[in-house]
Amino acid sequence: MKHVIVVGAGQAGASCVARLRAKGFDGQITLIGEEPFPPYQRPPLSKAYLLGEMERDRLYLRPESFYAEQGITLKLGAPVTAIDPAAQTLRVGDDVLRYDDLVLTTGSTPRRLPAAIGGDLDGVMVVRGLHDVDAMAARFAKGARVLIVGGGYIGLEAAAVAAKLGLKVTLVEMADRILQRVAAPETSDFFRKVHRDHGVDLREGVGLDHLTGTEGHVTGAVLSDGSTVQVDFVLVGVGIAPNTQLAEAAGLTIDNGIATDANGRTSDPHIWAAGDCASFPWQGQQMRLESVGNAIDQAECVADNILGNARAYDAKPWFWSDQYEVKLQIAGLNAGYDRIVTRRGDGDVVSHWYFAGDRLLAIDAMNDPRAYMVGKRLIEMGKSPDPEAIRDTGTDLKALLKA
Ligand code: FAD
Q: Which helix (H) or strand (E) holds 371?
């Protein structure tokens, strides 16, 4: 009987095994994860779960019983330590398992601050897994002082939760503006204002020089402009690195992640990769996306290819972020944009549309699900509306889909 092993029991891993069964694969499936939990969703870790408004069980993508019912062997708390591509085997604990097809969905690891600047002090934390959030929950007490390093989505979401819970929040972003890597200045401006209105001390163009501590615990920070802040704990949100070590040690090609072809196959014919750890061909380079939508779609594409239903991965990027009462929804990729068209509704309803010449590339919609939905569909259809029609709030956006 054919055996598919999936390494990494997260969003992509869970999607891959579910798709294999849903599409009629009747061979053996093993899903192996190093964390002790069944596959769970990470987005709430910096949102509702961190805020204490979501039960742990609701994080799980499926009840644990699903895997047994589907005849999927779930091995948890079990890091895979080596792959032998020639023998088509892998090592997990003392066991050596043989596979016909292997899928790597090992995710990513947050970058940490170097120990030389105090990154190893107690109270300096990252938000990646359930363990991280459970360990920091008690620190989110009213009046506590937190320094957030990094003004990307995770740092900003954590800042929103902390401010909502009554903590004293300082956020530093080394770049000129928050969200610089991912969004237009207009979107940065929107979120800067929202955070400042909620009392966050948000400083841009200011990095962390080093942390200071007493008896191993972090107590303060010296910033790049020479100023100092007193802190009770620090959250670091300075990006992630794909988990490629296992693949690299097995001799697979690494290029901005575990390199795959359009079908999700790595440089070894029996090994596939999907999710945060994997890169795929896109406009002449290897692209890697860090999002739930990508993890699901890419993993399902790999499952289809394993089943012999050959198809190329057609990325349709989408993302979201919740901060305070603001819901941001993003569709498309804004790389290469040369202008922004803004559509303003009432109050905090606004959307920014990214164009390269006349071509619509992406949309950031704040509190505007309709604009998001229409923008996403237009991008997927390869349609580019007249920018004036977008700007004009009298335009019925849905009509643009038919134009
Ligand atoms: P993961 O879900 O991280 O799963 C990988 C799993 O592989 C992990 O459990 C890991 O322990 C395991 N693993 C690694 N190496 C081994 C090994 N050797 N052996 C066994 N197991 C191994 N995306 C959005 O689209 N919207 C959001 O709002 C959003 N918010 C986020 C908030 C937070 C706090 C975080 C951390 C991420 C957020 N993301 C969001 C990103 C999204 O969660 C990831 O892109 C997605 O989880 C990637 O799925 P994955 O399966 O590739 O990786």
A: helix 369-381
52 lies in some domain: yes
pTM (two decimals): 0.97
Q: Which of 31, 41, 42 to mutate to test the pocket of ligand 1 (most atoms within 8 A of CB)?
A: 42
Q: Whose CA is nearest to atom 38 of ligand 1?
A: 43
299-322 as b/e, with b when 16 or more CB fall inside 10 Å?
Answer: bbbbbbbbeeeeeebebebbbbbb
Residue 17, domain member (yes or no):
yes
**How many CB atoms lie under 10 A from the CB of residue 18?**
23
The pLDDT confidence band at residue 365, using thresholds 50, 70 and 90, is: very high
What is the distance between the alpha carbons of residues 132 and 125, in angstroms, rounded to a whole number?
A: 7
What is the residue-wise DSSP string for 213-224?
EETTEEEEEEET
| Ligand 1 pocket by Cβ (under 6 Å) | 7-13, 32-35, 42-43, 45-46, 79-80, 105-107, 127-128, 154, 243, 246, 275-277, 290-293, 295, 319-321
Domain with 340 in it: 325-400
The model's pLDDT over 258-293, given as tens digits with 9 standing for 90+, comes to 999 999 999 999 999 999 999 999 989 999 999 999
Probe ligand 1: pick from 16, 292, 328, max atoms within 8 Å of CB? 292
How many residues are present in the chain? 403
Q: What is the pLDDT of residue 403?
A: 80
Q: Are residues 57 and 119 in the same domain?
A: no
Q: Whose CA is nearest to atom 14 of ligand 1?
A: 106
pLDDT at 75 over 90: yes
CB 341 within 8 A of CB 353: yes
Residue 47 belongs to domain with CATH number: 3.50.50.60
Residue 311 lies in a domain: no
In a domain, 313, yes or no: no
How many helices (H) and strands (E) the chain has is answered by 11, 26
Total number of domains constituting the chain: 3
Tell me, yes or no, whether 104 and 197 share the same domain. no
pLDDT 10s digits, 213-253: 999 999 999 999 999 999 999 999 999 999 999 999 999 99
> 250 with 341, same domain?
no
Q: Provide CB contacts within 8 A for 48, sequence distance 6+.
A: 54, 322
Q: Mark out the alpha helices in 235-320 (DSSP H runs).
A: 245-249, 292-306
- Closest by Cα among 396, 359, 364 to 381: 359
